[in-house]
């Protein structure tokens, strides 16, 4: 499967999180769902970034 962009997947997660948060804010205003979605997206982006760096170190 070809990537749409050449960004690292952690940046893709951050972009997805921001878009997801903006959509939820427009639908629900500030709610538990919006906060939970934002926090989980940021955590996934951080974990993904850590995994990418770990994979780069192992391949060197």
Write the layout of secondary structure elements.
Blueprint: H1 9-28, H2 32-59
Helix pairs in contact: 1-2
SSE pattern, N- to C-terminal: HH
The total beta strand count reads: 0
Number of domains: 1
What does the largest sheet look like?
none
Poorly predicted runs are none
Share of helical residues: over 70%
Radius of gyration: 14 Å
Proportion of beta-strand residues: under 5%
- Terminal Cα span: 25 Å
Any idea what the shape is? elongated
Q: Which structural class should the secondary elements be placed in?
A: mainly alpha
Q: What is the average per-residue confidence, as pLDDT, rounded to a whole number?
A: 75
Tally of individual helices: 2
Transmembrane segments: 7-24, 30-50
Keywords: Membrane, Transmembrane, Transmembrane helix
Describe this structure in words.
The structure is a single chain. It contains two helices and no strands. It is an all-alpha fold and 60 residues long. The two termini are 25 Å apart. The protein has helices at 9-28, 32-59. Helix 1 runs antiparallel to helix 2 (32-59). Keywords: Membrane, Transmembrane, Transmembrane helix. The chain crosses the membrane at residues 7-24, 30-50.
